[in-house]
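Please fill in the sequence for the structure shown.

STRUCTURE ENCODING:
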């Protein structure tokens, strides 16, 4: 998503965390189970599981719940059989959308995703139709208080990250930053940044994940902007959907009005 739109998405997501905590935990639980099933129960040797555990931790999932889902995925206790599936399509005005899901019923999930696209002026496409418009990068969201841009840059660059963007501040003065890192070395960069923020400034990482970042953006406004956001919200609310990526670019003032 475009940088200036990303800040509003983060604020919107943070405000909805408590209301959607159960749904977020369900998504995290599925990711943990699938990762443990495919790569084993040890996060030291299973990087996908390590990422899933970190995501659950940032959503404040209890440790015992995380461990129980690892055991389910590893087959130590009973659990459902989930598989990974990706959908690609176009939203209004040609906006590219990628949907990653974990499902135990491909027919059900495909139907629900296709219906969401159709309802809000988009259409589901073939595999690969928009995936080439995105690149895989590590994405780390920071929340800081009292740090200058130079302070943040020093921490980020020392950790081996590639880029950092200031996304704005909330009403309490906490600044949010978006840090990008290469997938290789992402875990080390995240750990280094987290340690430096916590030990030196008492600040924290809000979110850290492997993301699909658009290489180009699609400007959208008016009714099309409203439909794009509604489509993404509907997809994200689906229990089978883990992540939704898009390359929409909505003007900041219009984004604030639509999400306000």
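FILLED IN BY: designer on duty
SEQUENCE:
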């Amino acid at each position: 998503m475009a940088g200036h739109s990303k800040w509003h998405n983060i604020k919107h997501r943070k405000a909805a965390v408590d209301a959607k905590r159960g749904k977020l935990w369900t998504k995290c639980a599925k990711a943990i189970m699938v990762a443990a099933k495919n790569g084993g129960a040890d996060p030291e040797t299973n990087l996908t599981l390590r990422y899933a555990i970190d995501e659950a931790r940032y959503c404040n999932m209890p440790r015992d719940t995380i461990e129980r889902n690892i055991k389910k995925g590893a087959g130590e206790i009973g659990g459902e059989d989930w598989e990974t599936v990706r959908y690609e399509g176009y939203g209004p005005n040609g906006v590219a959308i990628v949907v990653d899901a974990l499902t135990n019923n491909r027919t059900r999930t495909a139907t629900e995703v296709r219906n969401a696209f159709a309802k809000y002026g988009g259409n589901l496409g073939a595999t690969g139709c928009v995936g080439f418009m995105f690149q895989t990068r590590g994405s780390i969201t920071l929340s800081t208080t009292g740090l200058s841009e130079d302070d943040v840059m020093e921490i980020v660059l020392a950790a081996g990250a590639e880029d950092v963007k200031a996304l704005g501040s909330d009403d309490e003065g906490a600044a949010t930053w978006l840090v990008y890192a290469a997938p290789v070395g992402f875990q080390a960069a995240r750990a280094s940044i987290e340690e430096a923020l916590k030990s030196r400034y008492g600040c924290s990482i809000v979110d850290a994940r492997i993301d699909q970042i658009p290489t180009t953006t699609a400007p959208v406004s008016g009714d099309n902007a409203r439909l794009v956001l509604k489509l993404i919200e509907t997809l994200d609310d689906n229990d089978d959907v883990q992540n939704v990526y898009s390359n929409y670019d909505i003007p900041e003032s219009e984004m604030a009005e639509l999400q306000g």
